[in-house]
Amino acid sequence: MAASMTAHEVMALVARKNNATAVTEYRNHCTLDTCPLDQSYYYYRPSLAANAIFAALFGLALISFLLQVTLSRRFIGFTVAMVSGCILEVIGYAGRLQGWQNPFNQNSFLIQICCLTIAPSFLAAGLYLTLSRIVMTFGPENSRIKPLSYPRIFIPCDIVSLMLQAAGGGLASTASHKNESVVTGDNILVAGLAFQVLTLLVFICLSLDFVFRTMRRMRSLGDAALDPTHAKLRQSLKFKCFLGALSLATLCIFIRSVFRCVELGEGWTGHLIRDQVLFIALEGAMVALGVLSLVFFHPGLCFREGYDIRMKAKEVKAGKKSLFGRKKNVAAQDAEATHEEVVHEKPDGLTPESGSERGVVGMQREDKEIGV
Fold this sequence. Notes:
The chain is mainly α. It has helices at 2-17, 20-28, 48-72, 76-101, 106-138, 149-177, 183-221, 231-235, 237-265, 276-296, 299-302, 304-318, 330-344, 356-370.
């Protein structure tokens, strides 16, 4: 009881004189036995079970992304973004696990708040890189903007958001270590989160616009509205599941970003930041659900049929020769003949350049320029 009274006296002193140094010194000498939890950095004791589960899930997701890119050798940029995000998630939940041992530890609190706030920026970048590939699969004519414009617009926006969040988190952490106000750093951090929310919202709107435009063109033109090269890919169950997984992941990260923007907008002592259940549901569960959906339906595996078609097109274009370099491979000649039939039998309104050849060449160009 004496320790509790001393704790309240210190907090009363802080409230009267805004003595941040007194709070830090007090917390540095606190333990679970001597100080109440509502005076820790978290205002509660982080859940051991929940944080251990999240750390394990993101660790497994990290390993899975590395294995899948090794097997598929595709979507390198997507994998780099997802791996970076998962690493930060693991570090962040490791910090919260340390917070379970000692919620009065300042370093573990700063580690988790910085890493878990920044991590979804990398995950969002992975989402942005996949939309251009989807547009190419259905046909660029259905999109309001060119396929390569999607990563060129959203990746720079994501970098700006990431820089703001990193700068804000760094300033807030430095101020906290110096026993100074974290308001400036927190405001910059919230600005980065708000910009991320805006970017995701525009991304969702453009994605929905592409869906509606594709549906309208299909109603008026039928199958002629779609790129015939990737018909098999569009019909595959894996590809359809990937579209669902991408939609789910985008929605989850958007909900999470809105929550963290509002939560941190109240400051580090606000009402929402004190609610562990909300944090688990709207931060941990949302991000984990989005990441795991893309683990099970990785684009490198779900787009496999599309890459098989592209490899055949490359072989046709190159024209494989015999060991003596005198004649093409018979299989290549057959593939070329089939390719020519597809080109000549295209529906009205689709020229060879705007159809299969354009789709294959465009996807090849995108691989080189955006690294997916």
